[in-house]
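> @MW can you paste both from yesterday?
MW: sure, first one:
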Amino acid sequence: MRKPRDYDAELKALEEKARELKNRKVQQLGELVIATGADALTADELAGALVALAETTDAGKREVWAKRGAAFFQGRSRRSAPASDHDTGGAQAQPGGAQPASGTTGAA
């Protein structure tokens, strides 16, 4: 006979995992703000800039921002990586795997 599933325990575990993922995302976004130097802006300035970025639907602008963001991360890896690792042949991933939910990589 099968053991009954403990749906409450499974749901609690999933909720904990979701909380951990949300906390990690918040931390990574904070690290991104600091890494780009955007922490020098006031909260109002940063919020206004992010709102403008999130509302932008112009694919050309978004592509330029994405390229600039990729170049930013590639430049950071060059400063911290050994000489043999400089040319990776592609865009660098964001530290810790952070991917903003809105898809606006390189927003700063």
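MW: second:
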Amino acid sequence: MSASVFAGDADFTLVNRTGYSIREVYISPTARSAWGNDRLGDGTLENSRSRLFRFSDRSACKQDLKVVFDDDNSEVVWENVDLCEINKLTIKYDRSSKTVSAESE
């Protein structure tokens, strides 16, 4: 069996290419309105840095991702991300146009 079978089925690496430090990360099923707890924990995820998030709930692959930026407390959401289909998610944000984008691998 491959190593990925033993890891959480929906584990993924989040790469911050927003241009800003992220203070909080929330992951919630797309159909749910509550965000739950901050998944980042202590510290920040600096721009151009990455972090592995353990996520083993294959029953709810489609998730929304919300981040809170450290510099101004603004929040940005990436919707309908299929965590069961990706290994790495690179998020981008253009603050002047408020445009979000993501690349998955």
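> thanks! Strands lie at 12-17, 22-29, 50-53, 62-69, 75-82, 88-94, 99-104.
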